[in-house]
Q: What sequence folds into this?
DNA sequence: GATGTCTTGTGAACGGCTGCACATGGTTGC
DNA sequence: GCAACCATGTGCAGCCGTTCACAAGACATC
């Protein structure tokens, strides 16, 4: 038996693997059979040395003097990310965001089919969205069991987010993606990721305002010495 | 004139300031007047020492033996993030995601009013969404000028994203938030942030699959020695 | 098969972030 | 006014991630 677990893959590398995957997807579609770390890095928007180091954590899948075989590298990245299988997704909250996520083609095409929608608005329950029936919150446990849900997505306002997270965990979901702008607490062993859309704007705001102040200082003449 | 630019605020700190802001907002609403670094950190989901160090980059706004005054700290964070003013936002692409973002209350309430919507679908142009008229792509330059747009949000498929980014930059937008799953290239001085919804799922997938493999190894009996 | 060219894989140095532990300094109670 | 207490602010050590620079290895050509 070969030893599978080489050195563990760093978080920073894991977060970039999906980018490499996307780039390699494109290259494959364009008919490229091999790619150098330099070209791959350029397309992924990173440094070539970083790309090579990232890929080296997966194994030695490059050929010195040649580059990486696109098909093979793509398979290895998919394998590392666990994307050789599908991960059915449940979305809680069928508001604007929930609908946008359910419709987002990038989910299904990357192996994350949205197979269940849940909402607590009686008016929505029973109706369909992109072929998926909207079910009440109380059905979460049954849906998770019957549809083998791997990932729960929270797309509701902050107020109910913690309660929904607990509901998902009780139902057996061990991976949660939370869009509610709230800090959630989950038990050990449950993976939680947070996406806060407003935070990104605030970071942009910070940089812009800093540039602005800097230029004001420069224009008004920084006192020398 | 006092020297404004103390040591620069690290990126890691900047990315947490919005979280502290949100927590302090809540505390203020609840009527709290002061908060300790420990409580603040707990609510923000970080280490207390980290919270203190983060806040110390803004200045010495705490009181030893007491804690931080909620109102004052909130003001200082808003000031550091440049949120004492409003930053008008233009959204390109009024599909599901664009609509979700336009409707998202968290934007306006945090100082980012969505004042312009743009799409290239003739059927949508001229219609209203939440009181904002949808305009053609060609109007971007005029909108940026007339409405003093600070931030452009790209919510269209990958294919056109680079072209739209260039359009925004030409129009004078220097901060861009991109939701298209593509690597964009912008000139120096333009701030670009990337949110890829599928990447988050793929990272969850990685962790889940790793846990799964680990438990398989354990169950089948790792060979000792 | 030997030589030159090309690209990977990685050792090592560097810089930034985290978290501990403690000195600093403000507050309260007597 | 003094002593005990409390929470902030920060020096320091360790860790993680990035980048450079180069050795190792594969291919092509003669």
A:
């Amino acid at each position: 038996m070969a030893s599978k677990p080489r050195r563990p893959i760093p978080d920073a590398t894991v977060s970039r693997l999906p980018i490499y995957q996307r780039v390699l997807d494109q290259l494959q579609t364009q008919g490229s059979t091999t790619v150098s770390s330099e070209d791959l890095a350029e397309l992924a928007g990173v440094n070539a040395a970083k790309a090579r180091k990232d890929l080296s954590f997966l194994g030695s899948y490059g050929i010195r003097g040649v580059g990486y075989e696109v098909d093979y590298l793509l398979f290895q990245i998919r394998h590392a990310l666990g994307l050789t299988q599908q991960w059915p997704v449940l979305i809680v909250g069928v508001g604007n965001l929930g609908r946008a996520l359910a419709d987002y083609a990038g989910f299904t095409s990357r192996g994350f089919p949205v197979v269940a929608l849940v909402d607590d608005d009686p008016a929505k329950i029973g109706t369909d969205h992109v072929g998926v029936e909207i079910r009440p919150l109380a059905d979460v446990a049954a849906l998770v069991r019957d549809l083998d849900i791997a990932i729960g997505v929270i797309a509701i306002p902050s107020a109910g987010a913690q309660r929904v997270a607990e509901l998902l965990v009780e139902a057996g979901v061990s991976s949660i993606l939370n869009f509610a702008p709230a800090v959630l607490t989950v038990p050990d062993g449950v993976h939680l990721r947070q996406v806060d859309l407003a935070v990104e704007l605030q970071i942009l705001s910070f940089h812009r305002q800093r540039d602005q102040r800097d230029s004001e200082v420069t224009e008004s003449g920084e006192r020398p010495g």
In short: The mean pLDDT of chain A is 93. Chain A touches chain B through 68 residues (CB under 8 Å). Residues 36-38, 49, 52-53, 55-56, 60, 62-68 of chain A lie near DNA strand C (CB under 10 Å from a C1').
